[in-house]
């Protein structure tokens, strides 16, 4: 990445600009703007997050917000209420209070003498979600949005449920937020006499969100609120949607470009869950330059050519050897002026037919361990590995060796006719690239709770032995399969630890199955070119404890229990400006017996530390989830320490009835 130190306008920074909400709650914002903005007002770019501007997102903030400010913007990074250095309490993600606060910040910013009245909102993940949701509320000053790694559907395509299946990321994320939100404000910001009171009030009112999310197992009003797919026409601001093929949110870009009536463009690269100017696998792109083109047009009225950009720009990844991490993915950029594209044709492949006879699918509960993380984050061994271990636990349908390469661009779909021996069953479908030596690389996958085959809102139990039909939509992808390789469709009834298992072992009988594959003519080279990554001066830190990650799969030969253990020590660093030292460690354990879905268990343990000179605080959180045939059984504990003194502790224990459809 090229570091830019000289900008068209000199930048000034305000590390703690207070923005008071109508109810009196003070939000803390870190603001960068041109020094002369009072004389020459500028548009505002807002990022509104719970992830702590002081020590959480500071790495990416330092690269991004001063860059925008130097090019003539007031860039505002707000700590959401109840987090970081802001007052108040947070009770859930994407609450009406959160979205209204963002609307109030937008109105406040637009009214400032240093603002020209136009506001843009951006963010990745949580910030990508809420900028779309805020746009749907149509605050008058909001003219444009850049949403990265986000979703249009909080139920079907977030970290809670997928295809009606309960994602284990639902438990993992609840555990993460319990830890993230347990930390206090910085005494240098909140004040020596106030930080502790704010912290203890935050801890006493903190929620463990898992029981709430588990209590909404169908697509009800809870999930519809904030799902912009309920009314795409509500978004009037111009939207630039960006994502990565190695992220969990692959489908949003296509959904937005296909459905939004406002100006919209999409970019998908080979990246994990990161901003694309520093993301991996490479190639990264000049995201900040692309963002400036977007902002300059929609917030300043400049002719930058963004309206003429292709609707959909995507990186077609070449076949590679399976690995848990790829520093780089070879491939090429394609450009579709309109999306959906008339250049893409659908090829249907018959996998199971009446002539060939039925196929049986009955997987051990350990199938899925080669799948990798739902959204890889650490530039480490979190990508899908060689799929052969999971292929061996699945029903596989191998196609003939390709005589010429093909490019798959879009969302493959599997149509099946099947009978189940149980009233509830999950199905996982993986599309793989099989190398000549048998190595199997994951191209795309999809999962479906088969009781949700007609509706996520009104599921229907299966009648054992009755033949019915279903459609499984796999994730969007862009992948070139070379000549000499073959396609494999692998079908399983388990996908651990990505999804929570059915309450009973399941046997599916497939009487018919066909796969629809979206194919595009081969690109001969890059059809669009991006600039090289740029950024402002990186965050200045001193390493106190280096980061390290470990990941192990172990099988107890006596009990048969299989355990996945993950330890991510994110290290500890000292900020060389304000001196705050922050560190965190996350530990996860997932256990299951191949023959017993009710043996499934997830456990987490997070440690967070903050210190400066003689002051230090630490929070420890633990959580566990398991189930019987009727209930989810969840528990959590939080401990908070000032120095070595325990100042707060709380336990959470709850049973949530398990929906059997």
Strand content: 35-45%
Report the mean per-residue pLDDT as an integer. Answer: 97
Distance between the termini: 49 Å
What's the number of extended β-strand segments? 33
Number of helices: 11
Can you give the helix content as a percent range? 10-25%
Secondary structure class reads: alpha+beta
Q: Radius of gyration in whole Å, from Cα?
A: 25 Å
Low-confidence stretches: none
| Biggest pleated-sheet summary | 17 strands, mixed
Q: What is the global morphology? A: globular
Task: Reconstruct the topology from this structure.
Elements: E1 2-3, E2 11-20, E3 26-34, E4 42-49, H1 58-70, E5 74-79, H2 96-110, E6 115-124, H3 126-136, E7 142-148, E8 161-162, E9 165-166, H4 169-180, H5 187-190, H6 195-204, H7 210-214, H8 221-224, E10 238-244, H9 252-259, E11 264-269, H10 287-300, E12 312-318, E13 331-336, E14 344-352, E15 359-361, H11 388-391, E16 395-398, E17 406-410, E18 413-420, E19 426-434, E20 440-449, E21 467-473, E22 477-481, E23 486-492, E24 508-520, E25 534-535, E26 541-545, E27 548-555, E28 562-575, E29 581-593, E30 596-612, E31 615-627, E32 631-642, E33 645-657
Parallel strand pairs: 1-25, 4-5, 4-6, 6-7, 7-10, 10-11, 11-12, 12-22
Antiparallel strand pairs: 2-3, 3-5, 8-9, 12-13, 14-24, 15-24, 16-23, 17-22, 17-24, 18-21, 18-24, 19-20, 19-23, 26-28, 27-28, 28-29, 29-30, 30-31, 31-32, 32-33
């Amino acid at each position: 990445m090229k570091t830019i130190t000289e900008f068209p306008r000199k930048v000034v920074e305000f590390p703690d600009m207070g923005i008071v909400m109508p109810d009196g709650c003070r939000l803390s914002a870190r603001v960068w703007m041109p020094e002369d903005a009072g004389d020459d007002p500028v548009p505002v770019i807002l990022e509104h997050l719970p992830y702590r501007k002081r020590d959480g997102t500071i790495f990416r903030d330092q690269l991004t917000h001063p860059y925008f400010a130097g090019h003539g913007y007031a860039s505002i990074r707000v700590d959401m209420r109840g987090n970081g250095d802001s007052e108040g309490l947070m009770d859930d993600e994407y609450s009406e209070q959160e979205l209204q606060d963002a609307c109030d910040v937008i109105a406040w910013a637009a009214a400032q003498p240093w603002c020209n009245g136009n506001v843009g909102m951006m963010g990745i993940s949580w910030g990508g979600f809420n900028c779309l949701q805020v746009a749907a509320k149509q605050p008058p000053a909001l003219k444009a949005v850049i949403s990265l790694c986000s979703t249009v559907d909080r139920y079907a395509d977030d970290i809670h449920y997928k295809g009606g299946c309960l994602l284990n990321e639902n438990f993992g994320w609840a555990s993460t937020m319990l830890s993230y939100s347990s930390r206090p404000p910085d005494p240098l910001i909140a004040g020596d006499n106030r930080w502790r009171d704010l912290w203890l009030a935050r801890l006493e009112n903190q929620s463990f969100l898992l029981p709430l999310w588990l209590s909404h197992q169908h697509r009800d009003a809870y999930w519809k609120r904030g799902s912009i797919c309920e009314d795409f026409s509500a978004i009037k601001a111009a939207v630039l949607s960006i994502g990565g093929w190695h992220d969990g949110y692959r489908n949003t870009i296509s959904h937005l470009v296909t459905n939004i009536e406002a100006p919209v463009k999409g970019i998908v690269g080979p990246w994990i869950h990161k901003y694309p100017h520093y993301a991996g696998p490479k190639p990264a792109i000049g995201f900040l330059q692309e963002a400036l083109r977007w902002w300059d047009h929609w917030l300043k009225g400049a002719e930058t050519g963004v309206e003429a950009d292709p609707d959909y720009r995507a990186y077609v990844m070449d076949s590679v050897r399976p690995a848990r991490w790829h520093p780089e993915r070879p491939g090429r950029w394609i450009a579709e002026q309109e999306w959906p594209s008339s250049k893409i044709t659908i090829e249907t492949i018959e996998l199971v037919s009446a002539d060939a006879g039925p196929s049986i699918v009955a997987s051990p509960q350990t199938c899925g361990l080669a799948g990798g993380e739902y959204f890889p984050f650490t530039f480490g061994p979190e990508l899908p590995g060689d799929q052969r271990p999971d292929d061996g636990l699945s029903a596989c349908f191998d196609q003939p060796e390709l005589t010429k390469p093909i490019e798959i661009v879009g969302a493959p779909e599997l149509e099946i006719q099947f009978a189940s021996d149980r009233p509830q069953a999950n199905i996982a479908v993986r599309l793989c690239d099989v190398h000549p030596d048998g190595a199997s690389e994951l191209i795309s996958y999809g999962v479906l709770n088969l009781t949700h085959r007609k509706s996520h809102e009104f599921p229907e139990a299966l009648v054992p032995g009755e033949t019915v039909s279903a459609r499984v939509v796999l994730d969007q992808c862009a992948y070139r399969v070379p000549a000499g390789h073959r396609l494999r469709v692998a079908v399983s009834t388990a996908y651990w630890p990505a999804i929570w298992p059915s309450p009973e072992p399941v046997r599916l009988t497939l009487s018919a199955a066909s796969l629809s594959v979206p194919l595009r003519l081969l690109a001969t080279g890059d059809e669009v070119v991006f600039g090289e990554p740029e950024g402002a001066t990186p965050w200045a830190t001193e390493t106190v404890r280096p980061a390290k990650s470990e990941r192990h799969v172990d099988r107890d030969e006596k009990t048969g229990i299989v355990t996945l253990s993950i330890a991510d020590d994110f290290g500890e660093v000292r900020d060389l400006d304000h001196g705050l030292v922050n560190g965190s460690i996350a530990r996860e354990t997932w256990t299951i017996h191949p023959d017993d879905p009710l043996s499934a268990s997830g456990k987490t343990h997070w440690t967070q530390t903050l210190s400066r000179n003689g002051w230090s605080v630490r929070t420890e959180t633990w959580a566990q989830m398991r189930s019987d045939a009727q209930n989810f059984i969840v528990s959590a504990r939080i401990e908070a320490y000032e120095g070595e003194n325990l100042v707060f502790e709380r336990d959470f224990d709850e049973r949530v009835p398990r929906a059997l459809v």
